[in-house]
Amino acid sequence: MSDARPAAAAATRPVVLLVDDTPENLSVLGELLQPLYRVRVANSGARALSVVASEPRPDLILLDVMMQDMDGYEVIQRLRADAATRDIPVIFVTALDATEDERKGLELGAADYITKPVRPAIMHARVRAQLELKQARDRMRDENVWLEAQVTLRRDENQRLQDVSLRALASLASTRDNETGNHILRTQGYVKILCEHLAARGRHPGTLTPDGIRFITMAAPLHDIGKVGIPDNILLKPGPLDDAEWVIMRTHAEMGAQAIERAMAEDGGDTKPFGFLLAAIEIAHFHHEKWDGSGYPRGLIGEAIPLPARLMALADVFDALISRRVYKPPFPLEKAVELILEGRGRHFDPELVDAFVERQDEFFTVARQYVDHDD
């Protein structure tokens, strides 16, 4: 046990690399430093670079300037060019005492400069100072890495909580008209596929940024939130709605948008922390608009319909086609594709239908992944 303690203590001491092509200088410096530090030596610049790349890596390098083949200036330039070694502090130890030589060394990244013949007290003080600075930088770096990891963890947790809360809220509307939570997951998946397809082709760069895609995808579950305000006798009616009932049913789009707008207003109206709410308002309000202007509630035409709502329109209709409703059985996937194609340029944005055709296999994958087991 008594032999293990000194060995363990030695292993925790800082590592100092001495680089000099004169054996006598290495011997003198080594004798001065070994009582306090783990000392490694290199008798050339090339050997120093090799030693630095091996374990244990040095915490500090004392580097001679005037060496054969590769001088200290070239060594430090190579150290600074490598991400693995650029942060190791270097003290030049040299017989040169001209101001110009010192300036050059410091400009290349040397932490300090000691002239020969070395005065032990000064050398120890400067070595200790540089090692303490390095330890402080290392602690700060480790703390920053830890803090960044904690911030990422908290952000991810908040994102998951937000997503679950949104889906729970959206489910209140979905369950009222016998839709399932899987409808929310499917339509969210379809919207994301379309967004990523368009973004990959450079379409709508102002809207389909990484944040924009995330906001639109997050907002998708709220498309029918306004249905909580529709009476059951209309929402759950198994047959066709009459004209008066349709008037009431169509109000769910504006009711949904207004509910989100009121929530924002009560929070002060600041949308910066909740950018997805703007997309949610557009989706809830306008996802029943049609490309040819025959939709509701405003009868908007073409690109006057906000892009998030156009994306949601196709996703919502496709999912309605393949799902069981109180008024119809589910259509086969192939029939649903055929009906989407028929709506190109009438119900749907032609660009989105083309994207749907290219990515329909992914739509089918999402549909199967979140299938309603009672279909």
Write the layout of secondary structure elements.
Blueprint: H1 4-12, E1 15-19, H2 23-33, E2 38-42, H3 45-52, E3 60-64, H4 72-81, E4 90-94, H5 99-107, E5 112-115, H6 120-176, H7 181-200, H8 210-219, H9 232-235, H10 243-249, H11 251-266, H12 276-286, H13 307-322, H14 333-342, H15 350-358, H16 360-369
Parallel strand pairs: 1-2, 1-3, 3-4, 4-5
Helix pairs in contact: 3-4, 6-7, 7-8, 7-13, 7-16, 8-12, 11-12, 12-13, 13-14
Summary keywords:
375 residues; alpha/beta; Rossmann fold; Hypothetical protein af1432; 2 domains; five-stranded parallel β-sheet; 5 strands; 58% helix; rod-shaped
Reading the helices and strands in chain order gives HEHEHEHEHEHHHHHHHHHHH
Low-confidence stretches: none
Mind telling me the C-alpha Rg?
35 Å
CATH architecture of the largest domain: Orthogonal Bundle
Give the structural class: alpha/beta
| β-strand amount | 5-15%
CATH level-1 class of the largest domain: Mainly Alpha
